[in-house]
Amino acid sequence: MSNEPAAEPRWLSDEEQFAWQCYLHATTLLEDHLDRQLQRDAGMPHVYYGLLVQLSRAPRRRMRMTELAQNAKITRSRLSHAVARLEKNGWVRRENCPSDKRGQNALLTDEGMRVLEKAAPGHVAAVRSAIFDRLSPEQVGQLAEICQVMTEGLQPKGADLPWLR
Amino acid sequence: MSNEPAAEPRWLSDEEQFAWQCYLHATTLLEDHLDRQLQRDAGMPHVYYGLLVQLSRAPRRRMRMTELAQNAKITRSRLSHAVARLEKNGWVRRENCPSDKRGQNALLTDEGMRVLEKAAPGHVAAVRSAIFDRLSPEQVGQLAEICQVMTEGLQPKGADLPWLR
DNA sequence: GCCATATACTTGAAGTTTCAAGTGTCAGGA
DNA sequence: TCCTGACACTTGAAACTTCAAGTATATGGC
Questions:
Q1: Model pLDDT for residues A85-114, shown as the tens digit of each residue
Q2: Which distant-in-sequence residues (6+ apart) come within 8 Å of A38 by Cβ?
Q3: Which residues form the HTH marR-type domain (chains A, B) (predicted)?
Q4: Which of A4, A42, A89, B21 could form a disulfide with A119 if both were Cys (CB 3.0 to 4.6 A apart)?
């Protein structure tokens, strides 16, 4: 009968509102902190660093663009721009995908690997001191569980079709 | 004796690494989701919406720029640009602070209030369906606790001195 | 083979954020 | 009073992200 955004919105309870505020503060402060740390120590923002990490873990240090974007949870467009920048730095290179002429692989160069290895200790230290050195093992488990639930809600079933917009 | 970034970095354990991955995925997907939802339904990104919310809750719907920036956990510079944009939309106005000629108040206009009220239900619904409708009450408490701990680590003691860079 | 549609990726412009540098005001002491 | 340094905020340029549109290849009928 009705197709509207809900007759009466269910507002957040006090507990929920509080948790939401805490969440927003913590996540923005952390992202900010990591961005600054990496920009200072490695010359790139956090997301770009994440891309290098993904590539470093991939089979031959290379990955299809779309797969990389999916793993990093960013749009293809954003990845295109990011790789363009990383390529300019000489940390990543593109190569044509042999099996699909539409496709491109992004691959981590030796220099990119060096940059990554150089930046990693500082980055881990930052993540540690912000989170894992402060939480109990139970809390780490709780955090993982909570985030998994959230991800499920945001990334429907098959998670392939309306992929990110 | 040594002043280096740590002789041997303590890497993350498997559990920690897993939790970290979950965290990154969940937070980027959520921020993305909310940005799109609000951009579509209210014509502004999530952070800007947060600013309007803060103002709507302030005494006379107005607040000093610095205080607003602190509450929202963003830099003053970012706030300046954001308010400039919101002002152009007619949702916020600036006024000189009577007691301090250096200061400015940002204040929510009636139109800004209307936009906010119109957007709020959809936003709450989005937050709900992504988080609070999926977590148990215990998990909500755990999340708040975890985020509080993180925030403490990122926002030192007095939290006023080296305030955000 | 040919067509329609889907997929893989790129591009340019507009919007947002960061960074460094700038203006003007305040507060305390010489 | 006149400094000096701190504070409140702004500004412009560069970097990054988003959005919509574009190119090229693949795939599944017909």
A1: 999 999 999 999 999 999 999 999 999 999
A2: A44, A45, A46, A49, A119, A123
A3: 1-152
A4: A42
Chain position carrying tokens 């998994």:
A148
The pLDDT tens digits of the residues spanning B49-90 come to 999 999 999 999 999 999 999 999 999 999 999 999 999 999
Q: Give the bridge partners for A95, in sequence order.
A: A105
Q: How far is A128 from chain B (nearest CA, A)?
A: 8
Task: Give dist(CA A157, CA A104) in Å, integer.
Answer: 27
- Cβ–Cβ < 8 Å for A68, A51: yes
Q: Distance, angstroms, CA A76 to C1' D21? A: 15
The pair of structure tokens assigned to A140 is 């780490």
End-to-end CA distance of chain B: give it in Å, rounded.
28
Closest CB to B146: pick one of A142, A148, A152.
A142
Q: Where are the domains of chain A?
A: 37-152
Interface test with chain A among B13, B25, B133, by most A beta carbons within 10 Å: B25
- Nucleotide nearest A43, CA–C1', reads D15
Instruction: Tell me the CA–C1' distance in angstroms for A2 and C12.
Output: 41
Count Cα neighbours of B148 within 13 Å in the Cβ-side half-sphere. Answer: 8
Q: What is the mean pLDDT of chain A?
A: 92
pTM beyond cutoff 0.90: yes
Q: Are B141 and A30 an interchain contact pair (Cβ–Cβ within 8 Å)?
A: no
What CATH code is assigned to B37-152?
1.10.10.10
